[in-house]
Amino acid sequence: MKYIRVDSDGAIARVTLARPEKKNALNRDTAAELLQAFTSCAQHVDTKVVLLAADGPDFCAGADLAALAELLDASPDAQYEDAELLGRVFMAIREMPKPVVAAVTGRALAGGAGLASACDVVYAAEGAEFGYPEVRVGFVPAMVMTMLRRSVGEKRAFELVSTGRRVSAKEALEMGLVSRVLPDAGFQDAVNALVGEMAATSASAQQLTKRLFYQLDDLDFQNGIAAGIRTNIAARRTPDFRAGVERFTRKG
User: Fold this and answer.
1) Same domain, 179 and 89
2) Residue of 249 and 94 predicted with greater confidence
3) Same structural domain for residues 152 and 34?
4) Around Cβ 162, how many Cβ atoms within 10 Å?
5) In this structure, is the dihedral angle defined by the CA atoms of residues 194, 195, 200 and 203, taken in order, positive or negative?
6) CATH no. for residue 10?
7) What is the pLDDT of residues 55-96, one digit of tens each?
8) What pLDDT digit, counting tens, does each position of 104-128 carry?
């Protein structure tokens, strides 16, 4: 792959944006490579957690404006295909049957902020910044609003997309855009430890948890409880749960 790098130690797959000279800006080729990587990770039996990180000081500066400029006079079909490809990346993260964790340093802007917030967990370094500056160049943070509204709520989300202002990692944590802020010093080691803890848990429990968690978006209270009952029963039937109960009872 040209714009990303994929490494795996078995339980943890690391997908790294590898275009630091362009602040890891997203173009069509990067999106295609990300889609391929996430699709592969979803199918890899040994992978239990996927970690999305980036080379260089910045996580991702958003869309590659030079690449977008080349499409200014393209046909509607070509425009649609270009936008739809990044949408498929966001969907691949959501549909991944295992947790996807973003490790954000530096700037995560526009589509880069969307890419981070599409992940299930976001760990941010203290010096990280997040923002949706599309309106400042006459553009719209269109697809990323789906993740943003679910993360921070309507009023805060609209203020971010309508002003384009950047927020610090601390403010992003306060509004729910990130899961945890970690010190800049030793950030990668801290992320590795947290992801390692996640990878040490039951793969089947993680899969059932993630599936139900997002399924609840579309359910009312009664149907949410019903879905929880079905997931509860499914979890009871897994070898991991049987082994966990047996370990607990032996200790008792």
Assistant:
1) yes
2) 94
3) yes
4) 11
5) positive
6) 3.90.226.10
7) 999 999 998 888 888 888 889 898 899 899 999 999 999 999
8) 999 999 999 999 999 999 999 999 9
Residue carrying the six token digits 């954000």: 104
Answer yes or no: 129 catalytic. Answer: no
Contact assessment for residue 19 and residue 3, using Cβ atoms and an 8 Å cutoff: yes
- What's the confidence (pLDDT) of residue 196? 97
Name the nearest CA neighbour of 199 among 39, 14, 62: 14
- Give the number of domains in the chain: 2
Confidence band, pLDDT 50/70/90 cuts, at residue 252: low
What pLDDT, in 10s, does the model give residues 180-210? 999 999 999 999 999 999 999 999 999 999 9
Do 26 and 41 share a domain, yes or no?
A: yes
Considering the domain architecture, whether residues 123 and 180 belong to the same structural domain is answered as yes
- Which residue among 81, 84, 126, 134 is the active-site one? 134
Residue 167 sits in the same domain as residue 181: yes
223 and 136, same domain (yes or no): no
Indicate whether 77 and 127 sit together in one domain: yes
Do 58 and 103 contact (CB within 8 A), yes or no?
A: no
Please check whether residues 50 and 126 belong to one and the same domain. yes
Is the model's pLDDT at 171 over the cut of 70?
Answer: yes
